[in-house]
Amino acid sequence: MSWNDFAVRLVLIVLIPLIGIFLGLLYKGFDRKITAMMQSRIGPPWRQPFRDVRKLFMKENIIPDNAVPWIFNGAPIAALVATLVALVYLPMGPFEPVMEGYGDLILVLYLLAIPAVAMAFGGLASGSPYATVGAQRELVLMMSYEFPLAIAAVTIAWKYSSFSLGVISSDPVWNNVGMMGGIGLALVLTTMIAVLPGELSKIPFDQAEAETELAGGILVEYSGRNLGIFYLAEVAKMVVVGTLMIALFFPHNISSWYSFGGPEFGGFILADVGADILFFLLKLLVIIFGAVSLIRVAFSRFQIDRASYFYWVPMTIIGLLGTFLVVLEGVI
Amino acid sequence: MRNEGKDETTYEVPIGPIHPALKEPFLIKFKIDGERIVGAEAHPGMNHRGIEFMGMHRNPYKVIPLSERICGICSIVHQHMFVTAVEHAASIEPTNRARYIRVIMSELERIHSHVLWAGVAAHEIGFDTHLHFTWMIREKVMDLLEYITGNRVNYAMWTFGGVNRDIPKKMYPKIEATLKYYEELYGKLEEIFLGDPSIRLRTIGVGVLTKEEALNLCGVGPTVRASGVRKDVRIDQPYAAYGDLDIEYQLPSLYGYKDTGDVFSKTLVRLKELVQSIDIIRQCLDQIPNEDINSEPKMAATLNKLKKADGEGIGRIEAPRGEAFHYVRLKEGKEELDCWKVRASTYNNLATYAPMFMGEQIADIPIIAACIDPCIGCMDRAEIVDVNTGKRWEYEHEELQRLSVKKTEKLLGGLKR
Questions:
Q1: Could you report the per-residue pLDDT of B302-354, keeping only the tens digit for each?
Q2: Do A206 and B126 touch (CB under 8 A)?
């Protein structure tokens, strides 16, 4: 690694998490506005999440008397850091992952599990019965959706014989399968779409927070800065999960179909890069709209055992069936 | 945790006094094993405002607006009951037209209350889309109530011997338009609350109250009609103009469903009562006689009569939540009420919580708590406070029974003497 290369990466590692948080807050504002419109409400302005974060960081940070302070304070930071680290291992738009070669899909999946675990520990350490119930639910839910998620990831990786996200996103997986494999991939995609609301703790899988049941559950004792950090982790996770889905299933770029031409910089055609970035943002928007906003307004909250059953039985079966079809086609 | 060598796996989760699942201050302590409820204990008394005490220091006319403010939703119910009770005590007869107007207003409020409840129920199971939908369509009936009375919530419509405002012929088209609006939307409501798979998942088989339990615990209103109990004051003891109208007990079995008594049946009963209310209002508009709206327009004359009256009266009506009553005692020569007692439907229905909660999950607490349509503001009428020590408590069943037996014995002893 040359010094020049090192410097570029260093800058990007600082920059990308900031961009991720910004995009997350922007999309959260979009999600809230569009949800409100679908529910025939007016809704908050799109910049409300930015205001929320600003206000949360200004508020007093209360630590309950019977909490374990170092876990209670450490959990939000662990959640945010893990989410942001995952971002630099993900390909975004036309760019390869910044840390390509130093970590792959498996690392990303592990990093994605950390925020949920951190939230559960934070909940357990806050010493409130509501948070305890919420933490138990969060862990149950995590154990339920991790397997279907792993099925989706492994199926794609098997197709490329590689866990590297740079390799996977360089060529859309749909180009490499025939009819049967296509059906299999569609099934795996269904599983992935079903995992998204669970991964992001949105209705119908928001049992851990469940406002009307547990009054905020896992986050009931959190306030001020700690809650603000959790808020940032949540919005960044939305971007991470969306980007992961794009990298696995829809890494298409406009530049591969059409080139605008024009000035170049460092091997990139600027107009094409711009188009690709816009296309990437649009894809992210569609995924967040479909997997978060649309599902959020169309369902009620499941009971925890039903949610767990949903992931363990129907979704796992659909995912495994998809994998089987993809592998079968590859073998024949 | 170890407890006397036995494995203790249950823990306690308090829901309340302030909790998003409850719309008013109220406390239920749950014993939870994992996600299952193994014990529930209700602790009312957090929303006691001493309204009855205030009422006993005012003349009856001043108590009418006060009685409206017992509850935020069923303000008509409480003024209706209070006015009926006082009329009963002082032998005042309202005119027939006033009786019909009272029915129309009561049924409009029933529509309002049931649509509002449906929204709350949807919110409790995390389905906010339907909360916003039902609360949007609720605006129409509130607009109509405002059109008729001038107010959205506290209508100030009742007075002794009749009503304060007439519903003239020119208001009929707007009333009819609103009724039509709800008739057209009813199909959609039914589709949402009886057909939506994710709502059915949360309501069918949840919070079951068997017919036997419903009878034993003396539940009232839609809560027990869903279990198949034929109980409706409008039919059992008709008041106002209900005797002239064609009404039927709304049971799930009337519509080809089983009287299971779960949350689904309770939703069904409430939705069907919405249709019934529309029908009742139409009947009223057809039959309403043309006469004065008040049998004694001069307030001073009535007040004078009330001052001379001596006796007790009971106002017993079917509120949207079930049977409720007011008890009033007037004493000759005394301008204020001698005694005023309010018993709202939630007081009875609270007892039905116990069998409904048992064995269900934490996730079902909000919807079961909401399924009786609790109104704590109406219900909280008594809390015992020892003024000397500042100690507060509530009487338990055994204690009350013991006191009751003691009182009876004392009275019997008095007779012997």
A1: 888 888 888 888 888 888 888 888 888 888 888 888 888 888 888 888 888 88
A2: yes
Q: What would the mean pLDDT of A24-39 be, rounded to a whole number?
A: 89
Average pLDDT over residues A209-214: 73
Say whether residue A37 is in contact with chain B using an 8 A CB cutoff.
no
Residue A229 contacts by C-beta under 8 Å, 6 or more apart in sequence?
A: A76, A77, A79, A80
Please determine, for the modelled complex, whether the ipTM score is greater than 0.90.
Answer: no
CA separation for the pair A50, A26 (Å, rounded)? 8
Give the pLDDT confidence of B246-277 residue by residue, as tens digits.
888 888 888 888 888 888 888 889 889 989 99
pLDDT, averaged across chain B: 83
For residue A144, the Cα-to-chain-centroid distance in whole angstroms is 16
The helix/strand/coil state of A121 is helix
Is there a contact between A268 and A171 (Cβ–Cβ < 8 Å)? no
DSSP 8-class letter at B72: S
pLDDT of residue A229: 92
| CATH code, domain with B79 | 1.10.645.10
Spell out where B77-227 has E strands.
Answer: 158-159, 162-163
Q: What are phi and psi of B13, to 5 degrees?
A: -120, 115
User: What whole-number distance in Å separates Cα of residue A168 and Cα of residue A163?
Assistant: 8
Given CB atoms, is A161 within the 8 Å cutoff of chain B? no
Maximum CA pair distance of chain A? 63
Give domain status of residue B372, yes or no: no
Buried (b) or exposed (e) across B161-197, using 16+ Cβ within 10 A?
A: bbbeeebeeeeeeebeebbeebeebeeebbebbbebe
Q: Which domain holds residue A198?
A: 3-250+260-331
Which position has the higher pLDDT, B2 or A176? A176
Contacts of A41 in chain B (CB under 8 A): 132
Measured in whole angstroms, the distance separating CA A17 from the mean position of its chain's CA atoms is 13
Give the pLDDT of residue B1: 37
CA distances from B184 to A20, B137, B140, B199, B307 (A): 47, 11, 13, 22, 49
User: CB pairs under 8 A, 24+ apart, for B110-113?
Assistant: B110/B273, B110/B274, B110/B277, B110/B320, B111/B141, B111/B182, B111/B274, B111/B277, B111/B278, B112/B73, B112/B138, B112/B141, B112/B142, B112/B145, B113/B73, B113/B74, B113/B320, B113/B321, B113/B373
- The amino acid that residue A239 corresponds to is V
CB contact under 8 A, A210 and B363: yes
Residue A203 carries which DSSP code? T
Structural domains counted in chain B: 1
CA A75 to chain centre: 18
Residue B376 is assigned to a structural domain of this protein: no
Total domains in the fold of chain A: 1
Q: Among A31, A141, A212, which would you mutate to test the B interface (most chain B Cβ atoms within 10 Å of its Cβ)?
A: A212
For B383-410, how does the pLDDT look when each residue is reduced to its tens digit (9 = 90+)?
556 666 666 666 666 777 777 777 777 7
For chain A, strand residue ranges (E) read: 264-265, 268-269
What spatial distance separates the first Cα and last Cα of chain B, rounded to whole Å? 61
Q: Could you tell me the pLDDT band of residue A25, with boundaries at 50, 70 and 90?
A: very high
- Domain interval for residue B144: 56-344
Q: Is the pLDDT of residue B283 over 80?
A: yes
Q: Model confidence over B194-213: pLDDT tens digits?
A: 888 888 888 888 888 888 88
Is the peptide bond prior to A204 cis by the omega test (within 30 degrees of 0)? yes
- 3-class DSSP state of B213: helix
- B198–A contact, CB cutoff 8 A: yes
